[in-house]
Amino acid sequence: MSVLRPRNRLVNFRLSEEEFEKLKSSCELFGARSVSDFARNSVLTRMDQAAPGSEDSSGRLVNLDQKVNSLETRVGQLIRLLEATGGNTSNENAFAAANGELGRSASRY
């Protein structure tokens, strides 16, 4: 396999014996040509993944914010239902209504 871009930079790091054995096992498991090939591909793949502060990471924060807002809404519903029953969850009809409303809200997720 020819190298389209010559690799002329060297990165060096030390491993314990246990870490090196795990690295060799991973190389075999993933079918890497060599330890260097596996380490290089692993590092470059990690670098291509979303870094903190990247757009993908921001998208995750927006998604998390939406879920928190939804949870706040459902907790508010539960509080209103509890207040409507005087906070007495022994009232079976009110408790069943609260379960039904929360169940409907949760089924959307």
Query: Helix fraction?
Result: 55-70%
Give the count of helical stretches.
Answer: 4
What string, H for helix and E for strand, traces the elements in order? Answer: HHHH
Biggest pleated-sheet summary: none
Write a compact overview of the structure shown.
It contains four helices and no strands. The chain has 109 residues and is an all-alpha fold.
Overview of the structural elements:
The mean pLDDT is 79. Helix content is 67%, strand content 0%. By secondary structure, the chain is mainly alpha-helical. It contains 4 helices and no strands. It folds into 2 domains: 32 residues; 50 residues. The protein is elongated and about 75 Å long.
Q: Top keywords for this entry?
A:
109 residues; mainly alpha; 2 domains; 4 helices; elongated
